[in-house]
Amino acid sequence: MSVHSVEDIKQQSSRLRGTLQQSLANPITGGLADDDQTLIKYHGSYQQDDRDVRDERRRQKLEPDYSFMIRTRTPGGVITPAQWLKLDAIATTYAERGLRITTRQAFQFHGVIKGDLKSTM
Amino acid sequence: MSPANPAVSLTTLAQTPLSAEPYAQIARLVENLDSAGLWWLSGYTAGLARAQVSATPIATVNANDAVERTRLTVVYGSQTGNARRVAEALVAKLEGDGLPVRLLRADAYPTRELKDERFLAIVISTQGDGDPPDDARALVEFIDGKRAPQLSQLRFAVLGLGDSSYPQFCAIGQRLDARLETLGAQRWVARADADLDIDRVATPWSSKLFAEAKEALKPRQPLASVTPLRPHAIAPVAWTRERPFAAELLANQRITGRGSDRDIRHLELSLEGAGLDYEPGDALGVWIENPPALVQAIADTLDLDADTAISHDGESLPLRDWLGRKCEITRLSRPFIATHAAHAGSDTLNRLLAPDQRESLTALMAQSQIIDLLQAHPGAWAAEALVESLRPLQPRLYSIASSRKIVGDEAHLTVAHVEYRHGNAERWGAASHHLATREEGASLPVFIERNERFRLPADASRDVIMIGPGTGIAPFRGFVQERASIGASGRNWLLFGNPHARYDFLYQLEWQDALKRGELLRLDLAFSRDQAHKVYVQHKLREHGRTLFDWLESGAHLYVCGDATRMAKDVHAALLDVIAEHGGKSAEDASDYLNGLQSQGRYARDVY
């Protein structure tokens, strides 16, 4: 784990870029490098893994089942039917558990895997 | 050479170089010795003989010339080791009789000597689509080609090995046999084509050859009488194919994640106490049993009682055991289809057997199992006839996925559990199903099948490029373990592929660690279903063609393991393209370059 604080990471991140580009392109893992896991939160996303299969996957010699949450803002809490359909289509294609609306008037997509992050966004 | 034989009884007086008195003394001496004493004595006397030899030069050196000319050369071309085993047994028998014989792997045969060869025996297998084994490509090309000399001085014998599940059964043996005759050589022993139950055909062929060789090669004046110290097969407690070691299954772990449509297993077997040594690249032979449900289904389909005792090959067992442990009951062969066509009186099947229906027959054999044929084309079978017509069950060979330097007295395997539905019925690959359903603690009869053609470079500073999609990854786990443990300075580059990164990245955590520790320099991945267009390892080879060619130019060794029908061919084609493009070579020169690598042992394949 990194020894420096979140503020240090942000300071050294060349304006929140960090090594996100390399992390996203790295095919060896479905996750991000440690510092990039902090930085991606400032881009409306975070990395998680399915705890239910953590042990099972370790025995399978597989890394944790990493996936990402992506959050979108809806200015004024209003979207058009066409926008809704589009968001729903994205959720169907890339996300697990459908399209989720939060109490803060945001839409969240869960379970997007790293390779699909870019297409989803 | 049956292990039941006592070591060797004293030869008769006429065969020994001894006069009556010392012979009688020796007979008295050995009478009361047990086998340990006899072994010791043989070593003791061999040592005495050796001391004399080094003191006195051999008087009959010039007799060698005569021997040279009348020597028998035994050449084998072997992919999985069967042809090698048959050739070795034959040579051991000939040597045991003191006959001048030499044994050569096909790629070690100096083709320029062919025109002077007097006696040649070839034992050669045929791969999938009628290809020679890798080690025999060059020799087959030479004999087939325009540069082959006239061979009127030659007497030859060919034994073909194959698998009658394939339409090109024993095609290479047949081709060589016909071609040698065309070149003017005289057929010494009639060609024989051995199916999976090799010995049924190989043993009579070997005996015939042995008898002929004894006749033709006996030195006019016996220069020396050679008695084998011991039968070839009895090495110090050797576990063999015929006498397998009971290995305990220590782990049976699925290594594809939830969501994968493949069930791939990592198996760990204990070899403790076996004294079974293996090298990375070797295979583990495993004797398996057929799924009991399938045995019952076959008996039910044919309306046979599985408990009826059947006598066959001098053994009486219930039909259930014949089908469960003795017979091959999944893979179809042409002869079985032909016999069943007669039993079923099926015009459809008979039509399929016509020469112009080869493709349909191949498709049938690839897509159906014996049970499917029996159900689709009902026909009556007597239990005896069924056991007679089925091929004997053969052990399965799996590339070992570990290095002893890391895992000690264990051998690890990577096995894809073959299971699918045929209509409403479940179907399995008999061997993988047996292994995948064994619980930890179960015992499996195993032996080591050497694969000298699939070895890490002796020079550890050489780079290695390993191409192993799917379960083809297995030997490379052993390679990387081995190279890490000996601190090999050469670079390791692995190319792997499978459908999905998320579920099918075999040994992902281990490769991540190996990369971190520098035990693996490069890992290129082709996950075919993770994007709209399919990406396979051959695409990765082309993508990194420049680097690949640079590695080859600096002496890298290239290894391919996995599927023979598609992958190995596509990879071969990609390698040729890369060599042509980045080496600035014509297609023909690229082919020569790759053949060159192969003959230097720098392009080795373990494909199935």
General description of the model:
The complex is a heterodimer of chains A (121) and B (608). In chain A, 22% of the residues are buried. Chain A has 121 residues and is α+β, with helices and mostly antiparallel strands. Chain A has helices at 6-11, 20-25, 34-39, 54-59, 81-94, 117-120, and strands at 45-49, 66-73, 96-101, 106-112. The radius of gyration of chain A is 16 Å and the shape is globular. Chain A is built from 6 helices and 4 strands. Chain B has 608 residues and is α/β, with parallel strands linked by helices. In chain B, the strands form 5 sheets. Chain B has a 6-stranded antiparallel sheet, with helices on one face. In chain B, helix 4 runs parallel beside helix 7. Chain A binds chain B through residues 27-30, 53, 56-63, 65, 113, 115, and chain B through 253-258, 266, 501-503, 505-512, 515, 523, 525, 527, 530-531.
In short:
The complex is a heterodimer of chains A (121) and B (608). Chain A is built from 6 helices and 4 strands, in the order αααβαβαββα.
What keywords describe this structure?
heterodimer; A: 121 residues; alpha+beta; 35% helix; B: 608 residues; alpha/beta; 6-stranded antiparallel β-sheet; 5-stranded parallel β-sheet; 23 helices; 20 strands; globular
Shape of chain A: globular
Rounded to the nearest angstrom, the distance between the terminal CA atoms of chain B is 31 Å
Mean pLDDT of chain B: 88
Structure class of chain B? alpha/beta
Count of alpha and pi helical runs of chain B? 23
Largest sheet, strands/sense/barrel of chain A? 4 strands, antiparallel
Give me the strand/helix succession of chain A.
HHHEHEHEEH
Radius of gyration of chain A: 16 Å
Mean pLDDT of chain A: 92
Q: In order across it, which strands form the biggest sheet of chain B?
A: 11-8-15-6-7-12
What structural category characterises the helix and strand content of chain A? alpha+beta
Question: Biggest chain pair contact, residues each?
Answer: A-B, 16 and 24 residues
How far is it from the N-terminal to the C-terminal residue of chain A, by CA?
28 Å
**SS elements, strand count of chain A:** 4
The dominant shape of chain B is globular
Task: Estimate what percentage of residues of chain A fall within beta strands.
Answer: 15-25%
Strand order of the largest sheet of chain A: 1-2-4-3
